[in-house]
Amino acid sequence: MRVLFVASESVPFVKTGGLADVAHALPKTLVSLGVDVRVMMPKHAKIKSTHQEELKIVTETTIHLGWRTKYLGVQKMEMGGVTYYFIDNEDYFGDAIYRGGDAENEQYLFFCKAVCEALILIDFKPDILHLNDWHTAMIPFLIKTQYAGLYNGHVDKQPRTLFTIHNIEFQGKMAFALMKDFLSVTDYYYSPEYIEADGCANMMKAALVFADRISTVSPSYADELTSAWYGQGLEGILTARRHEISGILNGIDFEIFDPATDNRIAANFSASNITNKRACKKALRDEFLLAISLTTPIISMVSRLTDQKGIALVQHVLEEVLHEDVAFVLLGSGDAEYESFFNYIAARYPEKTGIFIGYNEDLAHRVYAGSDFLLMPSQFEPCGLSQMIAQRYGTLPIVRETGGLIDTVVPYNVYTGEGTGFAFSTFNAHDMLEAVKKALLVYREKPVLRRLKRNAMLADNGFVRSAEQYRALYTTMM
């Protein structure tokens, strides 16, 4: 079984979000299970500066984007037992990973075309193309239309396509004229039956129509996507193909996120000996100059500051939370309104808040290790990785019951003692506040708290389970 995993980013080369973690950990785990998986992604500027000497040129040619002739290079390297192919073009990937607007649409129209051309040129002929999010979404369409007979003209030997939705909010919408100009898509396909949605050409719609199978990143999100609230205008095609959609929960890389070996945190600890987590809390307190006792609980957030992440709820009640004996630490960036709010909070409550606007991977590890609770009040959450990482570090998530948060956080049950965190169901600030207060009450019950932390650290959130399910899905597609 040969699989080409195609994505716009991957750890350790570039990362802007959780997709990069998945694009690294899932192929690596699949390889360990005996699947020949290789990864293809753009050669972003950072890769040139950090890995140029390790890259080998596979091929160089030119391709046509409408009336344009563009350079296409394919380079490769091996890391951790996985072969990576990089699509090289300075015009499109010489600066920003995502340029925004039509400039970004052009980047990834080129990428989709380049992947199809690369399949003709490289010596790896995958049985399955595993494609991820809208940046790869025109590939199933191209494989079924312009590149039919890709493998030496044999239509029956075409690679099968699996398209994974990581976040349906971002769909690759554009004027049809742009798509027609760059990919020579004929007018025939610009209809609601194929790639048109809400008066736009829609790359993700194209994938949902033309991919052989569809997956998404949690079982609950797979169900949610068929509703108008979550489907973002694509619920019709998703409902029609529901029997061909698999909800496979993502995981985290247990080698990268392991408090017993993590050299980014102040002290190592494990589920069997959690004592040193206190040293991590002290280090986090001191780093942010929090004037609190080590008996004061720390609630943290590691998040993009967007509406999706429920930041509006936090805006409404955070000051009320801060009236309790509690400290708050945030690591994240996003909408200017929310960044301004947290800067205001930092100025108003300097002794019990630590705010870092931006992102720093080392700091993220320290926040996960040093906090008592992680707040994730998401409006929707396809899978979520932060709650899994937090649990791995004995930090109890406080989440809204949606998407992957439902599937990974077991709410504390006062009667059975079961649980790996806390949850609330309605997207409402005061329901969130009640969940926070419940968590703070449990914090004072030390035997219960220790049990919940141990439960969380032992949760099966690794990628082996996910990889086994994907391997089974690939098998059904062969």
Helix content: 25-40%
Tally the helices: what do you get?
Answer: 19
Q: Output mean pLDDT.
A: 96
With strands numbered from the N-terminus, the spatial order across the biggest sheet is 3-4-5-2-1-6-7-11-12
The end-to-end distance, rounded to whole angstroms, is 8 Å
- What would CATH call the class of the largest domain? Alpha Beta
**Largest pleated sheet:** 9 strands, mixed
State the domain count.
2
The fourth-level CATH homologous superfamily of the largest domain is Glycogen Phosphorylase B
CATH architecture of the largest domain: 3-Layer(aba) Sandwich
Q: What ranges have pLDDT less than 50 throughout 5 or more consecutive residues? A: none
Radius of gyration: 23 Å
Which band does the percent of strand residues land in? 15-25%
At the fold tier of CATH, the topology name of the largest domain is Rossmann fold
Secondary structural class: alpha/beta
The strand count comes to 18
Identify the overall geometry. globular
Structure report:
The protein is α/β, with parallel strands linked by helices. It folds into two domains: 2-251 and 463-477, Rossmann fold; 277-457, Rossmann fold (3-Layer(aba) Sandwich). Helix content is 39%, strand content 21%. The chain has 19 helices and 18 strands. The chain has helices at 18-32, 45-51, 90-93, 101-121, 139-144, 176-183, 203-210, 219-224, 228-231, 235-240, 277-287, 311-321, 336-348, 361-370, 386-392, 403-408, 429-443, 446-457, 463-477; strands spanning 2-6, 36-42, 56-65, 68-79, 82-88, 128-132, 160-165, 173-174, 196-197, 200-202, 213-216, 245-247, 298-305, 327-334, 353-357, 373-376, 396-400, 422-424. Helix 4 (101-121) runs parallel beside helix 6 (176-183), helix 11 (277-287) crosses helix 14 and helix 12 packs across helix 17 (429-443). The longest helix has 21 residues, at 101-121. The protein starts with a strand and ends with a helix. The model has no long low-confidence stretch (mean pLDDT 96).
